[in-house]
Design a protein that fits this description.
Elements: H1 12-18, H2 40-45, E1 51-59, E2 65-76, E3 83-90, H3 100-123, E4 127-131, E5 137-140, H4 142-147, H5 167-181, E6 186-191, E7 201-210, E8 216-225, H6 227-272, H7 278-306, E9 315-318, H8 319-330, E10 336-341, E11 345-348, H9 350-366, E12 373-381, E13 385-392, H10 424-434, E14 439-443, E15 449-456
């Protein structure tokens, strides 16, 4: 290094210890690695000898200080361009005695930690408050003052925190404060307008702050602005109410006329008896089919609208038993063989899993191209879920249609079919997605298709 303390050449050990490379644009000085309160630099400049020795703490790459024996020797004596060569040898911890510098460095570290925490708190967008045991406001961070629209904290300093809350929200705040004074952490959601009257909803965590004797000294309140979430929840609640009204209208005001049409067609057929022409009889049968299809469409839409909105219990379900119940309810032809392999017992919403199995197995039977068929239900066990599969040996589904079939009202048959509404697979997909799973279609060898889906344990 030169006389000013600027370092011009170092070995690898120095770079590894200090984490500093001389390739950077900024010059590197020895004094940058020595505690500022140590007057080493002044002593160095006053030294006229050709060697210089001192025991100093040098900072490493992680801002820790370790004790070294530093020896400097004059290398060149050119005027205004003297160069020194130095060696820093580590002093073993067993030999190094605590010096004033050690304690000072601990104090500096402590101060830095406190400053670090203070900066985090002050920059937090949450409203962070400290209350005394009487509930008076002692402190509020700058981020909290901004979101509460408080221009001058002195105007609310020592105010009672409970006075900020009104009506039922105040009761929640009082309960939380009492719980915190009893030594427990508690949380609640409440409405509290800002200092300028702006509506705000908050998620509040109230925590007791203890001293070194585990005695409660203050109460910490952290309030997070959840106004956006509350507005979205209210909008969703309104939409759900509208959907409930729509469901009621569909189930009552649409199905009732359909039943009337079906009855009228039947009465006309009965009244005319043998006088009904073949063409007229065909029209009446077609009318009955259209009514049945419309009724099936309405039922499918109602089921689709209820997914995710029903409070269903979670219960232990033996899938082998559930599959047998589904088979009994579908009453497949005797020529169809339905088998299962390694089906689990799991905790789930029985009704939803029943709907998924019923729709997929019913489709496999309904869309088979032969009088006989085989369907196999299997399960694979993973850490958090099961992968279930329903495979058949039917005609399969063309690759170009494998995405479209999961869309509502999309079928591979003519729209005149009375049995296929195009809602079943859309219903299955929505149920599985609502329960956190995935649904996809695989090729089944040598023929048919295989519907796979995941289901949480």
């Amino acid at each position: 290094m030169d006389r000013s303390g600027q370092i011009h050449l170092v070995n690898t050990a120095w770079e590894n210890y200090t984490g500093r490379s001389l390739l950077t644009a900024e010059p590197s000085f020895l004094w940058d690695l020595i505690p500022s309160e140590v007057q080493t630099k002044a002593l160095w400049h006053n030294c006229s000898a050709q060697t210089w020795q001192s025991q100093l703490h040098l900072k490493d790459a992680w801002d820790n200080y370790n004790l070294f024996n530093l020896e400097l020797e004059l290398l060149t004596t050119q005027e205004h361009a003297s160069l020194w060569i130095g060696t820093a040898s580590s002093v073993p911890k067993a030999i190094a005695e605590p010096t004033l510098s050690d304690y000072q460095q601990k104090e500096i570290k402590l101060q830095r930690n406190v400053e670090f925490v203070r900066r985090i708190i002050e920059s937090s967008p949450d409203c962070i408050k400290v209350l005394d045991r009487q509930g008076r406001l002692l402190y509020m961070n700058h981020g909290g003052q901004d979101i509460m629209e408080i221009d001058d904290f002195t105007q609310v300093h020592y105010s009672l925190w409970l006075s900020f809350w009104q009506d039922s929200d105040r009761l929640l705040a009082e309960k939380a404060f009492t719980t915190a004074k009893a030594g427990k952490i508690t949380k609640f959601d409440g409405y509290c307008a800002t200092a300028k009257g702006t509506p705000r909803w908050w998620e509040v965590v109230v925590t007791p702050m203890l001293d070194e004797n585990d005695q409660i000294q203050e109460i910490l309140c952290v309030s997070r602005d959840i106004t956006g979430r509350k507005i979205a929840e209210k909008a969703l609640q309104k939409r759900n109410q509208e959907l409930d009204r729509f469901t009621y209208i569909v189930s009552h005001d649409l199905k009732a006329p359909l039943r009337g049409i079906a009855n009228l067609a039947q009465w006309i057929s009965e009244d005319l008896g043998d006088l009904v022409a073949d063409e007229t009889k065909e029209y009446l049968d077609l009318l009955g089919q259209r009514v049945k299809r419309m009724d099936a469409l309405i039922d499918g839409l109602l089921k689709l609208s209820r997914i995710g909105r029903q409070e269903l219990p979670v219960e232990s379900v033996d899938m082998t038993q559930l599959l047998q119940e589904v088979i009994d309810s579908l009453s497949p032809p005797a020529s169809f063989k339905i088998t299962s392999v390694a089906l689990p017992v799991l905790a789930t919403k029985r009704l939803l899993l029943n709907q998924v199995l019923s729709n997929l197995i019913s489709n496999a039977i309904k869309h088979h191209d032969r009088d006989t068929g085989q369907i196999e239900v299997t399960a694979r066990d993973y850490d958090t879920h099961y992968q279930l599969a329903i495979a058949d040996d039917g005609p399969g589904i063309p690759p170009t249609e494998r995405e479209r079939i999961f869309e509502i009202f999309q079928t591979l048959e003519s729209s005149s079919s009375t049995t296929n509404t195009g809602i079943g697979l859309a219903l299955v997909k929505k149920i599985i997605h609502e329960e956190g799973g995935q649904l996809w279609l695989q090729e089944n060898s040598p023929r048919g298709c295989k519907f796979c889906f995941t289901w949480a344990k």
